[in-house]
Design a protein that fits this description.
The complex is a heterodimer.
Chain A: H1 7-12, H2 14-32, H3 36-57, H4 78-83, H5 90-120, H6 125-142
Chain B: E1 3-4, H1 19-37, H2 40-65, E2 70-74, E3 85-89, H3 90-117, H4 123-142, H5 146-165, H6 173-203, H7 208-218, H8 222-239, H9 247-254, H10 257-282, H11 288-314, H12 319-340, H13 343-374, H14 385-388, H15 390-404, H16 410-426, H17 431-459, H18 473-491, H19 494-508, E4 518-519
Antiparallel strand pairs in B: 1-4, 2-3
The chains are: A mainly alpha, B mainly alpha.
Chain lengths: 151, 524
Amino acid sequence: MGNFFEFEFLAGHIHYLLFIILMMTGLFIVVDKTNLVKKIIGLNIFQVSVFMFYVSIGKVTGGTPPIFPMDSNYHVDQAAMQSNLYSNPLPHVLILTAIVVGIATTSLGLALIVRIRESFNTIDEEDILQIEQKMTREDNQKYKDDLKGML
Amino acid sequence: MASVAHIAEHSARDLIDHLPLLQVLVPFCTAPIIVLFGNRSLAWPLAFISSVISLIISVLLIISVREGGYISYTLGGWAPPLGIEYRIDATNAFVLMLISTISSVVLPFAYTSINDEIRSRDHSLFYACWMLCFTGLLGMVATGDVFNVFVFLEISSLSTYVLIAQGASKDRRALTAAFDYLIMGTIGATFFVIGLGMLYMATGTLNMADLADRIADQGANRTIRSGFAFIIVGMGLKVAMFPLHLWLPKAYTFAPSAVTVFLSATATKAALYVVMRFIFSIYHPDFSFAKNTLEIIFLPLAIIAMFSASFVAVFQINLKKMLAYSSIAQVGYMLLGIAILSEAGLTASLLHMFNHGFAKALLFMGAGVLVLKAGGSFYTQISGMGRKMPITSGAIVIGGLSLIGVPGTAGFLSKWLLVQAAFERSSDNSLFLIVALSIVLSSLLAVIYVWRIFEVLFLREADKSIPSSEAPIMMLIPMWILAGSCIWFGISTDLLYDVANQAALNLLDGSMGMSGSILDLGVK
């Protein structure tokens, strides 16, 4: 940890720092905002930070994009392929899956918000909480049940 | 049993070799088929048939691995560690059997319950979602590739959110319950992916066995340790580990009854299996950080969960909500079994997973029947229902007894083993005496909340307006199958104990790495 505040160390790990900043931004929005749509946006930022994390760990210093090198006849250049240093494509492929999952989550979340808006007439968490607390109070009143059988 | 040291290429010969994949593939293919047919009357039979096929497959799998060893299935013929591997050993075969049994038993129950609780035009989509959720849970457990775990986790989670939201036709709070779970579940799953990313950075592999080998080779460094933290927190959310349990009570209370039955018995268990896999097979408790996590974090949190959730459950006035809180407490017992970190503790934990799955499914089914008959599960609504439907309530009583852990029921066995495991550890650390004591004391709290069900059902005056009739036969049979197994596994303890013990031994052995003894399913 001794070299943490040195410029080279920070510059070399800039993608981690950006990942952490973005991740924390996303998490903060999810926790802080009461508007449900904003929560979903925060969730998206949070997920995108992870995508960036994955994409950045695939990078190999000095590596080319992981594409077969072609010779002038548009055939795979075997000789160049042997010597070629290329970035690791696997994390990118992995994160494609996670991106799809992220889209599914977002659309499901937004669909739920539409339904919530229809039945609660608000998409603000505070208001929903109040409505729900009122419902719970009414339930408790209506179905009041002391521990009479227990004592 | 012929053991093959190394399978280089894809050598499947017949259908039986494909069992590990079929386990997941059958329900996975059923889901789109149900949607394509779109026919309401076909949806349920299709779902049920594929669920039973899954059950048969899981029984075949557990028969072939119950003596130890594992089956390795390579997807698409790409040899692991590059290709995705499905690796079935006694541990995940055990969990696979739990999940497919529960789905097969609950679906007949769901038929009537869903007809009552969900609009009929949504039925075929509902069963498609059920199949997807089922697929996700099976896949999470069957796979031997960590990123595959994440994919299946999300398949099961996304369909779970939909299933929970279906409760909205009864109570609109189901929508917010599903939304809360979506937010928390996604954060959990994303944490899990971050952890996997760190593991990949440190080792360059995603295959569980290969990961275990490489982590053991290079020892722990900061990347590997922080990956562990991310993975445990992310999965802890799905397990409903004590401070991360907030999504659970609301989701279980407002989801349709059948969904609650299914989820309570399977979802947290599958996630718990993943936690066990990571702690024992991929990482190893020999690492001080893994051991410390268990003893300093899991153990106290498990005990707090056992007491606080049970205590909250005592004061609930809604049966479903009470059972939901009780689930959190029971997850505490399972985590405790892991944290005791011995063969006996793990066996107890796995057994409790199974027994609690059965007992809690039974109780939630009982709640489902009461919702159907009385229109709700508040205690004042279901007062005296036990006298009106004695056969149904008899099953509920057995489930309750198993939940407490009364001798003669399955719940007794696992709690007894848990206490025993704690006593075993107390010889070198006297703090475990307190652990053993707290298991017994928190069971007393279970006595109180279960007694409340009995008191409400049998000792109170019934509402005259509700006709006295038993539950429909489609609901009674699954309930009594589960009630019968609660008793059967409480008396004939060997069968389940042997499998659970083998599963625990497998876990404690650590990973068998890339070159363990592979079982050959085909020609013996």
